[in-house]
From TrEMBL, chain B:
GO MF annotations in UniProt: acyltransferase activity
Protein name in UniProt: Beta-ketoacyl-[acyl-carrier-protein] synthase III C-terminal domain-containing protein
Keyword hit for Acyltransferase: yes
Keywords tagged on the record: Acyltransferase, Transferase
Pfam families given in the database record: ACP_syn_III_C (PF08541)
Organism: Archangium violaceum Cb vi76
Signal sequence coordinates: none
Length: 375, 325
């Protein structure tokens, strides 16, 4: 397999690199990395490799990973003619996972990376003469505010979106679906990734910011019901499931849901777990000074939100801002159906228990002060 | 509370200054933090502004209460002055016996306590006096609870509690998104079985929020969940069901906050007496008791009804009681 991989510096991209080294030693990976020059590219790759494989003996052999200078925001990915020619003649497999995953990025910015960037990637991939299969990495949250059970076969909906990120990914899916007629593409929708199986956080995101504000006693309420689901998963599981499906269960034109399905974390379990783990290190939680946030209905939350926005309290505004990028899913009471993938992968690749993952991730966040300190 | 207690709330009297100042004027004078529109949206209207110091408001209010109920001042065994602002509980410069202490005795100005002056001024010569501060807006309710407890322990015929607060010139009248009025309210406790019965008083202090500026964000987050739990615990302690409460008597923080707390707790807004918020504003620690007197005077409750009184004081203290009319 000669794999062209975008997004190797992202949370799931890094985990895919690790998985490939462990499981497919004969694979050759062309990893697209942004850099202003070949010298910086080499330095970035060395730094990334040191992070991915702190144990030198675990690192991939020379030549298994080939960093390629490029940028998905550029037409032709900004590839040099030499790299473009090499990729066109050698690549057999493609996984496009590069994306702007900032939930609150302005829509034009999200579209530039996630729609235009995807278009640029596929324009280049179209020239690959030995192409066998392509994997496009998407998100379960393309469901937007669509309520209820969301199936792998669900593609188009008229519901609004909770944040610009998912709208841009929805639009990108539409683009990719159009390309499925001419290229062998499978789509992989991922859950909300919050860390590695052992709790390590490699990329901090909005969920970690919300967890920090929760820990500090800034969160008073969540909208939804106690049974509203939060489909949180680990980078390791997402990478392992995606690559196993891609290599062993490949079906062009199909969409796969990689998440917890019906075992998604209940909102009340999220609150209880956060409270329990916060009490391990913060005595205000242990002593009941900080109280678990209440779960309230949409009307109540809307009134509370409006009121807090009328105050001058910056942290309250930050809680609202983060909530605005996520809470719509709690109110939609969604379940992202993952039964087909669970059936395909069986016991071999299973999502980590969501409560345990949340526990370990929060412990890591607290121990590192949300990435500010090394353990 | 002791269910067989003979202590009763015998009378309530309050004084609200006649002078009313609108939100625009407060804003123009730099006495609001938020815009007048926000304060109006939160349910506030005019606020009451006193031309006399808090000590004078306390004195006239107590005197009127004693006269109204025909109580001989010498029969009062306890006076608790529960004025909140430090400037309210110290006798002001213009009312001192001598010129305000200067030079070597300047520090004595910090010891001119109004509770003892009230004792002398009103002839309450047999009353032990207590100054109760640092409880914010729950101070008068706390004072009544403490007076109740002291009367249980001691053979006292009457106890008086008073809260009087006047905001000094030049400082903001908006306190954590609430427009504050000046006021005084006094409560008389006795053993007259015809009085109101304090059946339960549940209180919760969370010292983490001691700094209302530094921890304001956390306080805003905690206010409703904590308030909800305090209400639930009060119901549990009283053995009463929600349906058995005729009215919830609030302190006059923003109407908006009551709308939210109503939704958090499931207590319908119609059961919360919010009519006084717009015309009277939030009068620090007095308004629960002002509202209680008003609902009785307006005939909104009758003998035997139960009312719930809820307040929150910066510090931070949540207090909730159930009173039987």
């Amino acid at each position: 397999m000669h794999l062209f991989l975008t997004g190797v510096t992202g949370a799931v991209g890094m985990e895919m690199a690790r998985w490939i080294v462990r499981n497919t030693p004969k694979a050759r990976v062309y990893a697209l990395i942004r850099a202003p020059s070949p010298v910086v590219l080499k330095a970035r790759w060395s730094k990334l490799a040191a992070k991915l494989w702190p144990d030198v003996s675990a690192r991939p052999p020379e030549g298994q990973f080939i960093p390629v200078l490029g940028d998905i925001s550029q037409p032709g990915l900004g590839l040099s003619p030499e790299d473009a020619a090499r990729l066109a003649s050698e690549v057999t497999h493609v996984i496009h996972s590069a994306a702007n995953v900032e939930l609150d990025a302005p829509l034009p910015e999200a579209r530039a990376a996630n729609v235009d960037g995807t278009r640029h990637v596929f324009e280049v991939v179209r020239s690959f003469r030995r192409l066998e299969r392509v994997g496009y990495v998407s998100t379960l949250f393309v469901a937007g505010k669509r309520p209820g059970r969301f199936l792998e076969t669900d593609a188009v909906h008229a519901s609004d979106f909770v944040n610009p990120y998912e709208q841009s990914k929805y639009e990108a899916e539409h683009l990719v679906r159009g390309l499925m007629k001419e290229m062998p593409i499978a789509m992989y929708r991922l859950a909300y990734l919050i860390g590695r199986d052992d709790g390590e956080v490699t990329r901090y995101n909005s969920m970690h910011s919300l967890m920090r504000l929760f820990y500090q006693g800034h969160v008073g309420a969540f909208p939804g019901t106690p049974d509203s689901r939060m489909d949180l998963s680990s980078n390791d599981y997402a990478a392992a499931a995606l690559l196993t499906l891609f290599l062993e269960h490949y079906q062009p034109g199909r969409t796969f849901h990689i998440g917890n399905g019906d075992a998604g974390l209940r909102l009340q379990d999220f609150i209880d777990t956060m409270t329990e783990v916060s009490a391990e290190s913060e005595r205000r939680w242990a002593q009941g000074v900080f109280l678990p946030p209440d779960v309230v209905d949409e009307d109540t939350y809307t009134l509370l939100r409006r009121t807090l926005l009328q105050t001058q309290n910056k942290q309250s505004h930050e809680v609202i801002r983060l909530g605005d990028t996520m809470y719509g899913h709690l109110l939609a009471n969604q379940i992202f159906d993952a039964a087909p993938v669970h059936a395909l992968l069986g016991e071999r690749v299973k999502p980590p228990p969501a409560k345990q993952l949340l526990r370990d991730v929060l412990r890591h966040c607290v121990a590192t002060d949300w990435g500010r300190n090394r353990i | 509370m002791n269910p067989s207690s003979s202590i009763r709330i015998h009378g309530i009297h309050y004084t609200l200054p006649e002078r009313q100042v609108g939100l625009e004027q407060l804003s123009a004078e730099g006495r609001l933090v938020s815009t007048p529109e926000t304060m109006r949206d939160f349910g506030f209207g005019d606020c009451r502004v006193s031309n006399v110091p808090a000590t004078q408001l306390a004195s006239t209010t107590l005197k009127a209460l004693l006269e109204r109920h025909g109580v001989d001042p010498l029969e009062v065994g306890l006076l608790i002055n529960a004025s909140v602002l430090p400037t309210s509980s110290l006798v002001p410069r213009g009312e001192s016996l001598a010129e305000f202490p200067t030079g070597d005795n300047a520090h004595l100005g910090l010891f001119r306590f109004s509770s003892t002056r009230l004792q002398d001024e009103l002839g309450l010569s047999n009353a032990r006096t207590v100054g109760l501060s640092e409880l914010g807006c729950v101070s008068l309710s706390h004072a009544v609870w403490l007076a109740h407890a002291v009367m249980e322990m001691e053979d006292l015929k009457y106890a008086l509690c008073v809260n009087a607060d006047v905001f000094p010139d030049g400082i903001k009248r908006e306190v954590v998104y609430n427009v504050c009025s000046d006021s005084a309210c006094a409560v008389l406790l006795s053993r007259d079985p015809e009085g109101l019965r304090l059946k339960t008083y549940h209180t919760l202090t969370r010292g983490y929020y001691w700094d209302p500026d530094g921890h304001q964000n956390e306080l805003l987050a905690a206010y409703f969940p904590t308030g909800k739990r305090v209400l639930e615990k009060t119901f549990k302690a009283s053995g009463l069901a929600r349906e058995e409460i005729k009215l919830l008597i609030p302190h006059n923080v923003s109407l908006r906050s009551w709308e939210i707390l109503s939704k958090f707790t499931g207590i319908p807004l119609e059961k919360i007496y919010t009519e006084n918020i717009r015309p009277k504003g939030h009068s620090v620690a007095a308004d629960n008791w002002i509202n209680l007197k008003d609902v009785i005077d307006r005939g909104l409750v009758k003998k035997g009804d139960h009312v719930m009184m809820f307040s929150f004081g910066l510090g931070a203290h949540w207090g909730c009681s159930i009173v039987q009319i």
